[in-house]
Amino acid sequence: RIALFVLLLLCPLSVWAVDDDLPPLIEVRGSAVLEVPADQVAFSVGVSTEAATADRAMDLNSRAMRAVEQALLAQGLKKGDYRSGQLLLRPRWSSRPVGSSNAWQPKLDGYTARNEFLVETGRLDRVGEILVAATRAGANNIGQLRFTVAQPEKHRAQVLSEAVHNARLEAETAARAAGVRLGRLYHLTVGDAAPTPVMAAEAMPRTLSARTPPPVVAPQNLEIRADVRLMYEIEEK
Fold it and tell me: pTM for the complete prediction?
């Protein structure tokens, strides 16, 4: 269910004329907030492996990532629901011992390989199971969940219309109180109307047993807000 919350931005109204060539103007602002349920979630699942050689680190990582990919597909995800993210291979150097001399030199301890999939899906009812399956398959890096709306433009027109309506009401109220009437719309400025994503805390352990139940993931509603600024000419009654 979509709940609509109207928020009027109470700010001083301005009635002014820029110069003799312009009529008197009134400036008002209006806002509206639309609360909608999230219908999409994005997160990353990755694997970090270590080995004495770069080839071995990459080989272990590739094997684990293939297993993670198969786990994602087994949970109902499709190829278009995930894509490759960061791929990293770097050496690991020994740490400087306490009290070592100036002649100390670091030694190569091995290599670390990291790879990840960026997952974006509307299967909100399966998020817990997807995370558990990926972890059991070898993923040891789970990114923070980010809940969003897949098509925010569907809601933009509604929240923007409400914001303009609120600003118009504000202008009409001010005009009546001042004993004048509104003329034509002189200027309109529209602010952003993008949804505010909700971030869920990262809480996946490094390994899970076969008996570990999937975590409960409850997406929150998102707020889509629009702000407008209107300027009207004012006329004497």
Answer: 0.67
